[in-house]
């Protein structure tokens, strides 16, 4: 069961207390002073929200939700600059994973598990149109999501530009790349972008990347599962860094 709060006043109180909120579902057509207060908090805190029919809310809970259900984050999200600083301070070469358009929570959990096992320093996800940390993803990660820093960013493109300003190279994974990972230089401080299996990394993110790489494959299957691809790339980076 995902961690939810329902009812107009409980949700407003949660926002006043600064609870990390993944998204808020609001019934279409609601009006009144309390709902005006709620929307003010949503605007001020730039919280992802959706206007939905009452039927959708009724499927989530049979209790009196008063037209509002909030999904409360199960972890405390990090700032990107803090993750990078922590990596440098530990004497390690920063390695971040950026997830562009990943929506499957089980893939997300598996990626987090791989990130921790590979010793990467954090995961970056967009605030909208992306996975969230819930019971399923935490369980699939074998608890890694409680240990790996996760950054939830409102603007992924601005975040990528900031990462580059911090001295990290940004590498995008793409089947259309001409650079296979085994013949590419991957020892530098870097952030690697992984896209969804159906659409891949977005054109906007590809344009910002310093370079792109692909995983060479045999067989007729078109692509690897994204969590598997993450493991292949991260451990190749580790191999290159260890055996210079």
Report on this model:
This protein is elongated. The strands form 2 sheets. The chain has a 6-stranded parallel beta sheet with strand order 7-6-5-9-8-10, with helices on both faces. The longest helix is centred in the C-terminal third of the chain and has 17 residues, at 226-242. Helix 5 links the parallel strand 5 and strand 6. The protein contains 9 helices and 10 strands. It has 2 domains: 4-72, 60s Ribosomal Protein L30, Chain: A, CATH 3.30.1330; 80-242, Alpha/beta knot. It has helices at 8-16, 33-45, 54-60, 80-89, 105-118, 135-140, 156-165, 203-208, 226-242; strands spanning 4-6, 21-27, 49-52, 68-72, 95-100, 122-126, 150-153, 169-173, 190-195, 211-213. The chain is α/β, with parallel strands linked by helices and 244 residues long. Helix content is 38%, strand content 20%. Helix 1 packs parallel to helix 2 (33-45) and helix 5 packs parallel to helix 9 (226-242).
DSSP helix fraction:
25-40%
Write out the strand line-up for the largest beta sheet, numbering strands in chain order: 7-6-5-9-8-10
Largest sheet: 6 strands, parallel
CATH class of the largest domain reads: Alpha Beta
Looking at the overall shape, the CATH architecture of the largest domain is: 3-Layer(aba) Sandwich
Low-confidence stretches: none
The SS-based structural class is alpha/beta
Helix tally? 9
Order of helices and strands: EHEHEHEHEHEHEHEEHEH
Gap between N and C termini: 46 Å
Number of domains: 2
């Amino acid at each position: 069961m995902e961690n939810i709060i329902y009812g107009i006043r409980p949700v407003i109180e949660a926002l006043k207390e600064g609870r990390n909120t993944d998204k808020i579902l609001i019934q279409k057509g609601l009006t009144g002073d309390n709902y005006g207060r709620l929307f003010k908090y949503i605007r001020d805190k730039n919280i992802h929200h959706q206007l939905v029919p009452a039927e959708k809310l009724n499927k989530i809970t049979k209790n009196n939700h008063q037209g509002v259900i909030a999904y409360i984050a199960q972890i405390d999200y990090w700032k990107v600059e803090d993750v990078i600083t922590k990596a440098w301070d530990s004497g390690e070469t920063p390695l971040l994973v950026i997830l562009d358009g990943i929506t499957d929570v089980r893939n997300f959990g598996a990626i987090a598990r791989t990130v921790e096992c590979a010793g990467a320093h954090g995961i970056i996800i967009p605030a909208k149109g992306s996975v969230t940390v819930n019971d399923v993803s935490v369980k699939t990660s074998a608890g890694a999501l409680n240990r790996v820093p996760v950054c939830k960013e409102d603007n992924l493109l601005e975040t990528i530009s900031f990462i580059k300003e911090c001295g990290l190279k940004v590498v995008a994974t793409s089947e259309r790349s001409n650079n296979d990972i085994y013949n590419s230089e991957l020892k530098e401080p870097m952030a690697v972008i992984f896209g969804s299996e159906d659409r891949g990394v977005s054109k906007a993110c590809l344009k910002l990347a310093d370079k792109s790489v692909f995983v060479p494959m045999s067989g007729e299957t078109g692509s690897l599962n994204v969590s598997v691809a993450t493991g292949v790339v991260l451990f190749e980076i580790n191999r290159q860094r260890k055996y210079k």
